[in-house]
Write a structure and sequence with these properties.
- The protein has 327 residues and is an alpha/beta fold.
- The protein has two domains: 182 residues, Aldolase class I (TIM Barrel); 104 residues.
- It contains twelve helices and eleven strands.
- The strands form two sheets. The protein has a nine-stranded mixed beta sheet. A two-stranded antiparallel sheet has the order 2-6.
- A hairpin with a 5-residue loop joins strand 10 and strand 11.
- The chain is globular.
- The two termini are 20 Å apart.
């Protein structure tokens, strides 16, 4: 029963603790909670906390904290890979910054790939810091999937939503990379009140570019409540998705029972272990540094105590997060 649940849940293409089937998700969460220890699917590494954009819904844009505007050292990344057990489904090489700022990023990808511990290595990027040939070269270094944030093709909308975006460069890079890697380049659209009326145009443009897959996330009462979608907006989003679902493979985030403390481990730029991939400020909380190994950090008594009561008592660091649900 346990192996069946874990296998089925893995096949849901679980990323960031969001599942498609809520009943399966809840059953799996209850099983995980029995042992209080994580069953790792995903490793998040904040390669750089520097960024070339200022996005209105981003944690990094709204807050200042000591680990902001830094690059992870290669030695820290190497320690993370060396400490990680084999058989991990995803390595996500991004936090609240742009990984291409880190001059060691390509070397990090090569080291992670050579370890053979990760089934899929993923990068989330705005595709604007470098030219297309740089991003194409990352696949030679070991990258398996590149997910690009595309929240509008209108410059006026991007000036509000993702300040610093150059629409012409973004479009040019998308076309160039997609031409060579159509199955490895995916788009991600984060929908808020700022761009909900532009969603149909965004999906039409992505479809015309022949994108094979688009992930859609929604802003729901997280950090910036003024831009959160209401019920009317949500109805509009679902209607637009239905219109395009036969033209493009669309994966819509579902808000169910959070599994992040059980299925993922997140490292901020300093190598400190965070409770999830939505918190990279280690002044809020962290569970030690990777220099101490996973046994004394991710599997520590401190983290296990939080996991043991996670679905009964909401941790303070989960406040206002739409993914948290009690069982």
């Amino acid at each position: 029963m346990i192996s069946m649940l874990r296998g089925l849940y893995s096949k849901q293409n679980l990323i960031r603790g969001v599942g498609v089937d809520r009943l399966l998700q809840k059953a799996y969460a209850r099983w995980l909670n029995l042992g209080n220890k994580g069953k790792l699917f995903t490793v998040f590494t904040e390669i750089s906390s520097k960024c070339n954009l200022s996005c209105e819904n981003c944690y990094r844009t709204q807050l200042d904290y000591p680990s902001k505007n830094k690059n992870m050292s290669f030695d820290t990344f190497k320690a993370i890979v060396d400490s990680t057990p084999p058989g991990i489904q995803f390595l996500v090489t991004q936090g609240f910054g742009e990984s291409a700022f880190n001059p060691d990023f390509k070397q990090m990808l090569r080291y992670a790939k050579s370890s053979r511990k990760f089934q899929t290595i993923i990068l989330d990027s705005n595709l604007l810091l470098k030219n297309a040939d740089y991003y194409e070269s990352l696949f030679d270094d070991g990258l398996d999937r590149l997910i690009v944030s595309v929240d509008s093709f209108e410059q006026s909308v991007c000036d509000r939503l993702r300040k610093g975006t150059d629409i012409e460069k973004l479009t040019r890079n998308l076309i160039e990379v997609l031409k060579k890697f159509p199955d490895r380049l995916h788009a991600r659209v984060t929908v808020s009140k700022t761009n909900v009326n532009d969603l149909e145009n965004i999906l039409a443009r992505l479809s015309d570019m022949n994108f094979q897959r688009v992930e859609i996330g929604t802003i729901v009462d997280y950090h910036n409540k003024k831009t959160a979608l209401d019920d009317q907006d949500a109805t509009k989003v679902h209607s637009i998705i239905k219109k395009f679902e036969k033209r493009i493979n669309i994966l819509l985030d579902q808000y169910g029972t959070c599994l992040l403390p059980f299925t993922t481990v997140s490292f901020n730029v300093n190598g400190n272990i965070m409770p999830c991939c939505r918190i990279f400020d280690d002044e809020i909380i962290h569970f030690g540094n990777i220099a101490s190994g996973l046994k004394n950090t991710y599997y520590s008594d401190k983290f296990n105590r939080i996991r043991s009561t996670f679905y009964k008592k909401m941790p303070l660091f989960c406040k206002d997060c739409p993914h948290y649900r009690k069982l």
